[in-house]
Amino acid sequence: MTLDEWRRREGLSFHALALRFGLSSATHARRYAIGAVEVPAEMKERVIAETCGAVSLEDFHQQRLAMSQGRPSYGRSCKQECTSAAQEHHETSKGAVA
Questions:
Q1: Mean pLDDT (10-residue bins), the chain, 98 residues
Q2: In b/e form, how buried is each residue of 26-39, taking b as 16+ CB within 10 angstroms?
């Protein structure tokens, strides 16, 4: 489960997530939650402990890997992430050669 999925399950806003983990802003919490930036190791350990293991190191890794490869977020299907236009682009670009 991603940190963002856990946040939603718990009914927390990004602001509340920031407060819970001692982050400086909701924007900072959002970036960590969606995998836009690498979460420091110490923070990963804190998240794992606070979520009772619901969010794991593997979850952090897979989310960042998906982000770096331009794939939809880890833990979500393409249909959940993409609009119909983006979905069409995603399907047609799978076989494209750079």
A1: 96 97 95 92 96 95 86 50 43 47
A2: beebbbbbbbeeeb
Q: Tell which residue, 72, 47, 69, 70, has the closest CA to residue 57.
A: 47
Return d(Cα 71, Cα 48) in angstroms, integer.
24
So what's the pLDDT on residue 68? 82
Question: Are 56 and 48 in contact, with CB atoms under 8 Å apart?
Answer: yes
Can you give the pLDDT at residue 65?
Answer: 87
Phi/psi at 39 (5° precision): -85, 130
Residues whose CB is less than 8 angstroms from the CB of residue 86 and which lie 6 or more positions away in sequence, other chains included: none
Residues in the chain: 98
Q: What is the pTM of this model?
A: 0.70
On whether the CB atoms of residues 4 and 64 are closer than 8 A, the answer is no
In degrees and rounded to multiples of 5, residue 23 shows phi and psi of: -90, 160
